[in-house]
Amino acid sequence: MKVSLCTISFRHHLLSIREIARFARDSGFDGIELWGIHARNLGPGDHAEWLDAYGLRVPMLSDYLPLDAPRETLAEHMAQLCRLARGWCAPRLRTFAGTRGSAATSAEERAHVAARLRMAAAYLADHGLRLLVETHPGTLADTTDSLLRLLEEVDHPALKVNFDTLHVWEGGDDPLAAHDRLAKHIDHYHLKNVRARSDLGVFEPANVYAAAGRREGMTRLFEGAVDYEAFLPVLAPDAEVSLEWFGGSCFSILPADLSRLRAASARSSDVLALKAG
């Protein structure tokens, strides 16, 4: 398993990318998932070379494609992201499947989102990249049924899934069952947890992005409502995952969660090996 931290965890910190890289390296991470706004502010360049010297890579740029914007605006946005991804040698771009939940989206709106995602997937594929839609509330990927339908509607091999386990659970689906149905489409994972379903509001964008937002309810990976001990065995040994931590105490929580994740993954591998033997 390759595990990355997310630069979005440090959105309210005054840190350089090299300071984050040193922390990631010293903590034992394999890579850094780069938030789109951070990538844009760092600008183009051969960043992968110096990052490789830290033993790190960028598995994904996490951004928000303007699917409702004019085609020319979307194309310009993607062109910029392709240049940035090339500089970091990042193979994936994450986005959301629109800005409205599946139950609140009309057939016409759904067709528009699908068409724009098809356009984006084709554009990125021409540049050697894969486009990932994230399982997320308030989008057309808010339930497994809607996401599978969307994948069929887009019908492009470069469109994959960023499986956010917490948000799958938030949408009312069992993560294990959802994973089984989506397995062939999943290309990356976001892992985070919450104290209880009543605390899910802490992940609302208005709260997450606010420097003074509420963090109570965000928990360490193995101490929340989602059972990661039960979920991790379904992940392939070479799975690419990111610890998406939005709370405080990043410099203690992230290494601790990484250590427990490595240990749990090792136990799962041992169990699978015994079963195979």
Describe this protein's structure.
The protein has 277 residues and is α/β, with parallel strands linked by helices. Helix content is 44%, strand content 15%. It has eleven helices and ten strands. It has helices at residues 17-27, 36-42, 47-52, 71-88, 107-126, 144-154, 165-170, 175-182, 205-208, 228-231, 250-276, and strands at 2-6, 31-35, 61-62, 92-95, 130-134, 159-164, 186-191, 193-194, 218-219, 240-243. Strands 1-2-3-4-5-6-7-10 form an eight-stranded parallel β-barrel, surrounded by four helices. A two-stranded antiparallel sheet has the order 8-9. α5 (107-126) links the parallel β4 and β5 (130-134). α4 packs across α5 (107-126) and α5 (107-126) crosses α6. The radius of gyration is 18 Å and the shape is globular. The mean pLDDT is 96. Pfam families: AP_endonuc_2 (PF01261). InterPro entries: IolE/XylAMocC-like, Xyl_isomerase-like_sf, Xyl_isomerase-like_TIM-brl. Keywords: Isomerase.
What's the topology here?
Elements: E1 2-6, H1 17-27, E2 31-35, H2 36-42, H3 47-52, E3 61-62, H4 71-88, E4 92-95, H5 107-126, E5 130-134, H6 144-154, E6 159-164, H7 165-170, H8 175-182, E7 186-191, E8 193-194, H9 205-208, E9 218-219, H10 228-231, E10 240-243, H11 250-276
Parallel strand pairs: 1-2, 1-10, 2-3, 3-4, 4-5, 5-6, 6-7, 7-10
Antiparallel strand pairs: 8-9
Helix pairs in contact: 4-5, 5-6
GO molecular function: isomerase activity
Keywords: Isomerase
Protein name: Sugar phosphate isomerase/epimerase family protein
Uncertain regions spanning at least 5 consecutive residues: none
Mean pLDDT: 96
Taking the sheet with the most strands, its summary is:
8 strands, parallel, barrel
Task: List how many beta strands DSSP finds.
Answer: 10
Beta-strand share of residues: 5-15%
Query: What's the number of helices?
Result: 11
Spatial strand sequence of the major β-sheet: 1-2-3-4-5-6-7-10
C-alpha geometry: globular
Rg is 18 Å
Helix content: 40-55%
The ordered H/E elements are EHEHHEHEHEHEHHEEHEHEH
**What structural class should be given to the helix and strand makeup?**
alpha/beta
What separation lies between the terminal Cα atoms? 21 Å
